[in-house]
Write a structure and sequence with these properties.
Layout (H helix, E strand, L loop, with lengths): L2 E5 L11 H7 L4 E4 L17 E4 L2 H9 L15 H8 L8 E5 L12 E5 L9 E3 L1 H13 L11 E5 L4 E10 L2 E10 L11 H13 L5 E9 L2 E8 L12 H12 L1
Parallel strand pairs: 1-2, 1-3
Antiparallel strand pairs: 4-7, 5-6, 5-7, 8-9, 8-10, 10-11
Length: 259
Amino acid sequence: MMYILIQSNIHKDPDFDRIYPILDELKIPFEKINLTSSITKLEILENRSDVFVYGSVKLAMLGKQNSDWNPGSFYGGNHLFEINSKFYKENLLNYQTEVKELSEKLVWKDREEKFIKPYKLAKLFTGNIFTKNKWENFVENSLSKPHTPLMNSKSLIQVSEPRDIIKEARLWIVGGNIIEAVYYKILKDIPFEEKVEEQGIEFAEQMISTFNVAEAFVMDICLTDIGWKIVEINCINSAGFFPNVNVKKIFGALNNYFK
């Protein structure tokens, strides 16, 4: 049975608290941690190593330091664009991308738009399409009043050409298998779909067979004007839920795989 160290002070995700009764139902033992800026090392009350951490990016980063924990944290490694892009190549939405520092001046054409997102720290800010003015205002505000200590002038960003996205879905993958898949964004003029369409699932399965990033990870995919693409790869230890996600299915699969 897996043991979960779970961050209790997650306030931005209204669906986060759903996890506690589900873990009780699955009879998965857990311990809460109120993660503060003063904590630089993770410790647990129990004497065991079969620990899985779940919470913020910071918790995932700290969990990676406990190398004796299994599964522990999957943060970093193959999740990085510079690694998985060698395998996924043009199947990545932003394969043709530039990596810059947040404070670097970008070159803009007249009325140009760019898609900009964090490079290594996915939760640093939400990737979006920016105009020159919008981006420069965002950088100025972010550096003058950073919402996280991880945000600074040296923070790395990815800059690429925007694509027309029709719908986006998040997939939870454990042991090379897609455990759960839900849409989190869909154009208003597209008919409602309860389940991620089969072509999207097949695309993701092909990508997993090409390169299985980790024993457990999250993949965001999207349907574009040129077919299905990978939006990004995320660390499962800090991947948030959506209202339509089957949390029990995800943690049941994690527990069965790693016990």
